[in-house]
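Working notes for the structural subgroup meeting. M.R. asked for a predicted model of this chain before we commit to crystallization trials. I am recording the input and output together here so anyone reviewing the notebook later can reproduce the run.

Input as submitted:
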Amino acid sequence: MFTPPMIMPFFPPHRILMGPGPSDIYPSVLAALSKPTVGHLDPLFVGMMDEIKTLLQYAFQTKNSVTMAVSAPGSAGMEACFVNLVEPGETVIVCRNGVFGERMRQNVERLGAIAVLVDNAWGEPVNPNQVEDALKAHPEAKFLAFVHAETSTGALSDAKTLCALAKQYDCLTIVDAVTSLGGVELRVDEWGIDAVYSGSQKCLSCVPGLSPLSFSDTAVAKLKARKTPVQSWFLDQSLVMGYWGDATGGAKRSYHHTAPVNTLYALHESLRLLANEGLEHAWQRHADMHQLLRHGLESLGLEFVVDKAHRLPQLNTVHIPAGVDDAAVRKALLEDYNLEIGAGLGVLAGKAWRVGLMGYGARRENIALCVHALATVLR
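Returned structure, recorded in token form:
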């Protein structure tokens, strides 16, 4: 018989999280996690799920009845959109200007569909003119897929214009809003977004592990008209809708999986806080805090990767100065200040830092600490 290891309880330090996510969590959201667990079909819990749906509809600015939280991180939300809507042999225009556009391409091709790429340089937004050229060249395309807020670079693309183009060419849209939800303007119904997914750990300042998702009526019709079964049983929204409540309303909830009960308590609280603040106030707060951080970073001689017109307020990507050791700086910030900033991804690895200002983390005291700590370490 094996001897059990003697392991002490884990006590994490209190970090200030100013990377690309997870973000600092609201204290009341952390407190919500410790509430008593109930069954995932308990009538009171089902009532709370209905409130989450209503709160998510507000956050997304949509009346879509199929609006819920996938019981897995944002990457599963991405896969849920593609696996439910895209069938083998269909053509998808995929916009790629960073890591997460590339992941969209991989999803499309794993489904046996055809990805037509619209590439833009890292740090640039998706170019609508190039998208229209691709739509003209591929009238067979069924979908346009793009990242609204590219987390790997901090670039914000014009979702409203891109969705209008998709409608003009009779395409459905699949939109990554993992970093944009709650941080910048996002209007699902007004802009005509068909499928959108996000993450709980970014501007919602909730714990990681949930992916808010919303499907338009057109997307639901496409799902119901599939000629082939959805490849993933767990992510099959035609099954999950029976648990979260379908468009008919009032139907008895059917068991699909054991929901992460306490994590959903946390999402409920974070969405409640967002609603109390008001979406437009939250968007403005992120913009205001970005300006403060921008002044501080530029005073240190740091230069932004993304042009000012397309810059995400909640994710600030700056070039690492020549001769500065990326890993050594981030290590010093973590050890000396309990402050985490993000490293660069892909072509920006070792060349850029990503400084997050998301949700509860978008506060003056965090900005003051970050600028002071960077100034000290860089000296």
